[in-house]
Amino acid sequence: MGKSAVRKGKARPARKLAGDKVFDVAAELFYRRGVRAVGVEEIVTRAGVAKISLYRNFPSKDDLVLAYLEKRNADFWQNWDLTFAKYESDPETQLSAIMTHLARRTTRPGYGGCPFVNFCAEFREPSHPGRRVAEANKREMRRRFVQIAAALAVRQPEQLADGLLLLVEGAYAISQTLGGGRNGPGNALPHSAQALVDHHRRRRSRNTP
């Protein structure tokens, strides 16, 4: 077989579609700089596509923002399941793994904060469809914390779950004020979560006949 035949038989890398280029550029800019600060002109210029390519895939900027948030939400829970599902039979180890992961994530250099909190800080209108995605993300996290708290057999799993959610949201917020690093307050997340669990366990033991 000649070399020309070999070359013809090689699979060429797939070309990225215009809509994918637009989405990837927009997602990076939205997270790094904020949604309001990024215009359609900049997105298409950086993506190297015509503006019509954006509107063929996303009828408006709001549709592009919504797609960005939905993808971040789906990726977040996919990564959560891949990382923490293996600990389902041991809720205490699972919770420790979750909080350790989030502490490392929120204190790493260049961390830009929770994309859903960032979005809601920019868009306060309850009617914006993006806020429904952000709310769904937080409700799902609370639901998962309730499951873990129930598996820990505390008396008030919903109350423990709310406390855990507040700790996580606090870590997200403080990452954007005091920052991270080895001495950042976000590193206290695993210890604080364990202290909260221990507190609920003491309450259970005091109320057990």
Question: Which key features would you list for this structure?
Answer:
Tetracycline Repressor, domain 2; 2 domains; disordered N terminus; single chain; 10 helices; about 210 residues; mainly alpha
Task: Please characterize this protein's 3D structure.
The structure is a single chain. By secondary structure, this protein is an all-alpha fold. It has two domains: 15-59, Orthogonal Bundle (Arc Repressor Mutant, subunit A); 62-206, Tetracycline Repressor, domain 2. The chain contains ten helices and no strands. The chain has helices at 3-9, 18-33, 40-47, 51-57, 61-84, 91-107, 115-122, 129-151, 157-174, 189-206. Helix 7 (115-122) packs across helix 8 (129-151). The longest helix is centred in the middle third of the chain and has 24 residues, at 61-84. It is elongated. 24% of the residues are buried. The model is unreliable at 1-7 (pLDDT under 50).
Would you spell out the secondary-structure blueprint of this structure?
Elements (H helix, E strand, L loop, with lengths): L2 H7 L8 H16 L6 H8 L3 H7 L3 H24 L6 H17 L7 H8 L6 H23 L5 H18 L14 H18 L3
Explain briefly what this protein structure is.
The protein is mostly helical. The chain is 70% helix and 0% strand. Helix 2 crosses helix 5, helix 6 packs across helix 8 and helix 6 packs antiparallel against helix 10.
